[in-house]
Amino acid sequence: MGKWVYLHLLQYAVFQTTLYLNIPGSYFDLCYRDERKKEKPQSVGYFQLFRFATWKDTVMMVVGGLCALVHGAASPLMLLVYGMMTDTFVAYEREVQELKDPNKECNNNTICWINGSIYETAENNTVRCGVDIEAQMTMFAYYYVGIGLGVLIVSYFQIVFWVSAAARQIQKIRKTYFRRIMQMEIGWFDCNSVGELNTRISDDINNINNAMADQVSFFIERLSTFVFGFMVGFIGGWKLTLVVIAVSPLIGLAAGLMAMAVGRLTGRELKAYAKAGAVADEVLSSIRTVAAFGGEEKESERYDRNLVEAQNFGVKKGTVIGVFQGYLWCIIFFCFALAFWYGSKLVIDTKELSPGSLIQVFFGVLMAAMNLGQASPCLEAFASGRAAAKIIFDTIDREPEIDCFSEKGRKLDKVKGDIEFHNVTFFYPSRPEVKILNDLSMQIKAGETTAFVGPSGSGKSTTIQLIQRFYDPKGGMVTLDGHDIRTLNIQWLRSLIGIVEQEPVLFATTIAENIRFGRPGVTMEDIIQAAKEANAYNFIMDLPQKFDTMVGEGGGQMSGGQKQRIAIARALIRNPRILLLDMATSALDNESEAVVQEALDKVRMGRTTISIAHRLSTIRNADVIIGFDHGQAVEKGTHSELIERQGVYFTLVTLQNEGPSNTTNALEDFVLKARSFSRGSSGSRRRYNEHVTPAPVARILKYNQSEWPYMLVGSLGAALNGSVNPIYAVLFSQILGTFAIPDLNEQREQINGICVLFCIVAVISFFSQFLQGFAFAKSGELLTRRLRKVGFQAMLRQEIGWFDDPRNSPGALTTRLATDASMVKGATGSQIGMIVSSLTNIGASFIIAFYFSWKLTLVIMCFLPLIGLSGVFQAKMLTGFENEDKKAMEVAGQVSSEALANIRTIAGLAKESSFVESYEQKLELPYKSGKKRAKIYGLCFGFAQCVIFMAYAASFRYGGHLVSSEGLSYMLVFRVISAVVISGTALGRASSFTPDYAKAKTAAAQFFKLLDRVPKISMSHTDGEKWDNFRGEIQFLNCKFTYPTRPDIQVLNDLVVSVKPGQTLAFVGSSGCGKSTSVQLLERFYDPDEGQVLIDGRPSQSVNVPFLRSQIGIVSQEPVLFDCSIAENIQYGNNTCSVSMEEIIESSKKAYLHDFVMTLPDKYETQVGAQGSQLSRGQKQRIAIARAIVRNPKILLLDEATSALDTESEKTVQSALDEARKGRTCIVIAHRLSTIQTADIIAVMSQGAVIEQGTHDDLMAKKGAYYKLVKTGAPIS
After folding, report:
1. Backbone φ, ψ for residue 394 (5° rounding)
2. What would the pLDDT profile of 1047-1068 be if each residue is shown by its tens digit?
3. Residue ranges of the ABC transmembrane type-1 domain (predicted)?
4. N or C: which end of the chain has fewer CB within 10 A?
5. Phi, psi at residue 854, to the nearest 5°?
6. How far apart are CA 1269 and CA 1174, in angstroms?
7. What is the DSSP code string of 697-764?
């Protein structure tokens, strides 16, 4: 099969290299990444991957391997046919040339003179004749068809056997792995995150699959081609083979050097981008500070500075690739010249080779080298498979410390329920340095209710986990009725225990099924009974589907109280001897608490019950109360006894009773809100992939406008590169043609001429490759930088509410900046070069082909779609299958991730085995589709492999016909066929870029969506009004406000309050009442939903935002500092002009900061570290105050500016603040009332409205809310 294929394979190889270098995440990046991970990941031996193979799998793999071996030998075999065919053509052409002389004729297969004497050439050789070209060509066509069919069959089996064998083994690995994970003790889960385990189940096992499936067969096939290719070469002519081999190290060397250079540069480029990314991340994380101080311009400049460096490395990388690629092509063409020159010597002078065997040798060696190159990506798949297998198999081979599936251990006949701890010492395996239980001894009597109380972290919940035997104590023992629980059967032990937790876990199924989880094989009556006992029956019957209502993922459709009662029903249906209540009511509101508490009191009767609670009201009536502190039981007795002892319990009770009755509730409600909020956000994160219509390319190119000279030069280079291959086809066929020239001297001259042309082409292609590489790298990198900068500016333009959306978290935004911009490069930059060169290649090839023989061209063109389509079809099939597979695996993945996320609940219910069964059942579908897929994939692959053989059979047979009937020169047959096949590969290459191109368009669309978004609050310097004598009078008129991300929670409710210029207004109130929110409205981070904020009598919506913010200085509780020097942080206060050193010192003196700074070695140049981490809180706070003073603002906002400080620094900071307040309108939010007694107006807020306001003395006289707060001295939040 000719050089065409070899040539196209060759191009494919070089093109693969280019592809590798241009696609991020490709082979070279991988090489580079491995360099970074110097510590080598351990891996298992390759054949250990197959440890789960049955004899049937082994047979399939062996047969598949043999098929691959035969398939690999097909191409070299084809070369033999090809060589013979060339010789036939040459002989026929000779005969035609000789018989042009009317004095010669063909007689007995030898050319004779008409007078009968035999014709001899100058070397006294006779010339043979009588070649029946049609018959010969028919025979060759049959050979081709035969090889093609053989290939179809063996390649089909090669794929089917390997893929199905792999599917069977992977199925087994998945099952074994999941079962083993579910067997592990809880301590193991503490050390392995659930997310990591989920990715292992999916990605790592897929990696093992890649190392076991079709990649192996490709590897065998390529190696076999490598061996047979060299064999064909050496058999045909060993001298030429050695010459060609001698040149090949040059190519290898170039590829190696290129890989190294590109790896180095990519590394540096990534480092530079990482720096820019860090800037972006820092800015977006502290967007409120940036906005408050108007630092947007400054930040985008800083970001851009870091991009420049990355851009330069990118351009260098493109240039290096261009140079090396030019070098590669250059060497290849020199190699052609050398081989043909030396080969022609062997044909003409020493007669060692025939023209056919010259071709056979040359392409045999080329083909062998290429296939060796193509076998290397397989090695990479094997390596990652082995590394993944190491982790998976280690887990499979690990013996769990507490095996929940084991049948070992005693089952007691009768259980009383006495639990005793004997000198138990314990620490969690994930944190061995923290002792949780310290020599704990206590006993819990059967049938009594025992309550555990104590500060959090004192080991209460840990004891419960030890009773369930989630962990074994590190010292001492836990006994049940006098038996060490380590000697009891674990499933049986857990079946005695019912547990209700603070955050009960429900599974994504119906209510009835959730209750049934408590005990297998219960009737509906039992379920209803349990629901009644748990006070759940009534609310369940009110639901439309009653017991068949789905509770949603993690029970998300149910309220806290409902979930809690379903969990209690689930615990009760076990009819447990021991009931563990871990803060079972703490997460509920008062109403549901009463109901749940009542349910719990009903079911405690006659069982050993252990209750942990934070609300002491719920445990007053326990039989025994045990007080914990630092992992020891420090006191024990009834409520009244412990009150008298005045120990741990007494402290907790007094704390709870003294604080205003609702503080604990408020606190817990707040925690609950925060919890539900964090849960809500994960839901919205999933919705990120909305559908975006791809952006038009024209608009992308517009951003690249200023680089048009680069793009023009690059396109020129690309066009030259594209035309190199068709020129090659012409030169090559020309060489074959010269062998038929009768005059040997003329032959030599022609061949030397052609070899010189090859050298010229080599030099040209060196320069054009370099041009293309450099020019497009330059324009692409400039575009990426420009897009990143524009994107970053667009982000900084958005209003603050936009950043609250979890989809726009700093992490997500920085990733978008990094990936979207570099993906857009996929539609411009080097891709344009690829497209241009493919197009010129196709154009030139077709012009050549049609010019020399349009008939033959049309015949070959019939096969082009098949060749092109088979490739596209194969890619489509595979991606299609992958998607189907992903979908099917997702269902199984849901089971596994639900199981792993709720492993404690499952272990407590002893339900591991039912999850394992469910998972194995869900795996059946992907497994079946995998087996079906193997067959279809095999067919496609076989078809793709054999189509090219068929194309050769038809086109050479028809070429033979044209040669004999129309006198077409055989040289032109070769020329046309090679030209068309080359254009075919170029077509394929062009089509392989469509996915990148489509990605680029969608990424661009995402990007433009960001650029086109109109912020709700305009940041422009021109919108809105400004005025000169800004006084700083503020009024809030009936403001109502909800945060855009939580529209159901009303934060401000008709807020009315005003402050005159120069006055100080203080807000007090519990947390969540809207104090900080009012400050954010004033800064115009948000606008009120109803009502107005008036500034100097003008509504805030009509005021120019940068102007307004420039009049306000803010000091918040946790001030945000940037990762630069102290001076630069203070200068940040005024971004409109450059701040002189005098001003900095002036303001830091006012902030009581100057003396401290002067003690530092670098004084004002001291770096503060990321987020100011090098400084103490008081120091950071004073820098923030200095930064606010530098602005010389008319309005000063102090948001709990001293709450986080110790008393010493608080005094210093407080005096700094009092200094700063002079002559300014000031709004203070404080938690310590002592700090605000001097304020002109104190406003007490509750639930988004002001309930009372006045001076300190007025309010004290009123004896209202403020008075109570001052008297109790309680912290307000």
Report:
1. -60, -45
2. 777 778 888 888 888 888 888 8
3. 62-384, 712-999
4. C
5. -70, -30
6. 36
7. HHHHHHTTGGGHHHHHHHHHHHHHHHHHHHHHHHHHHHHHHHTT-S-HHHHHHHHHHHHHHHHHHHHH
pLDDT value of position 65: 92
Closest alpha carbon to 1183 in 1227, 1151, 1228: 1151
d(CA 921, CA 919): 5
What's the average model confidence in pLDDT over 829-846?
82
What residues contact residue 760 under an 8 Å CB cut-off, 6+ apart? none
Q: Give the β-pairing of 104-107 and 110-113.
A: antiparallel
**Would the pLDDT of 36 be above 80?**
no
The pLDDT confidence band at residue 320, using thresholds 50, 70 and 90, is confident
Structure-model confidence comparison of residues 1271 and 1035, the more confident one: 1035
Rounded Cα distance between 701 and 779, Å, is 11
- Calculate the CA dihedral of residues 816, 821, 822, 827 and round it to 10 degrees: 130
Overall average pLDDT of the 195-221 stretch: 79
CB atoms within 10 A of CB 1025: 10
Task: Give the DSSP letter of residue 695.
Answer: P
Q: What are the start-end ranges of the H helices in 967-1036?
A: 970-992, 994-1012
Give Cβ neighbours of residue 233 (< 8 Å, ≥ 6 apart).
240, 241, 244, 360, 361, 364, 365, 368
Other CB atoms within a 10 A radius of the CB of residue 1040 amount to: 16
Q: What percent of the chain has pLDDT over 90?
A: 3
pLDDT confidence of residue 38? 35
Closest CA to 478 of 470, 486, 563: 486
Q: Does pLDDT of 86 surpass 80?
A: yes
Global pTM value? 0.68
Q: The sheet that has 1064-1068: what strands, in order across it?
A: 1112-1115, 1195-1199, 1225-1229, 1064-1068, 1241-1246, 1249-1254
Please state, in angstroms and rounded to a whole number, the distance separating the CA atoms of residues 127 and 111.
Answer: 6
Reduce the DSSP state of residue 124 to 3 states and report it: coil
Write the pLDDT tens digit of every residue in 588-607: 556 566 766 777 777 777 77
Spatial separation of the C-alpha atoms in residues 1131 and 1188, rounded to whole Å:
10
For residue 1270, give the 3-state DSSP assignment. helix
Cβ atoms of 418 and 481 within 8 Å: the answer is: yes
Per-residue confidence band for 1234, with pLDDT thresholds at 50, 70 and 90: low
> pLDDT tier at 142 (50, 70, 90 boundaries)?
very high
Check: CB of residue 68 under 8 Å from CB of residue 410. no
* Average pLDDT for the chain: 77
Q: What is the DSSP letter of 693?
A: P
Residue scoring higher pLDDT (420 or 1272) = 420
Nearest 10 degrees: Cα torsion 196, 197, 198, 203:
80
| CA 117 from centre of chain | 83
For the chain, the distance separating the N- and C-terminal CA atoms, rounded to the nearest angstrom, is: 83
pLDDT digit string, tens, across residues 1076-1109: 788 888 888 888 888 888 888 888 888 888 888 8
CA distance 1007 to 1235: 48
Is the dihedral angle over the CA atoms 860, 862, 866, 869 positive or is it negative? positive
Of 12, 761, 727, the closest CA to residue 337 belongs to: 761
Closest Cα partner for 531 from 563, 569, 567?
569
Q: How far apart are CA 93 and CA 18, in angstroms?
A: 41
120: buried, middle or exposed (CB in 10 Å: 19+, 13-18, 0-12)?
exposed
pLDDT at 556 over 70: no
- Beta-strand pair 608-612/449-453: parallel
> How far is the C-alpha of 352 from the C-alpha of 288, rounded, in Å?
83
Question: Residue 1079: beta bridge partners?
Answer: none
Residue count of the chain? 1277
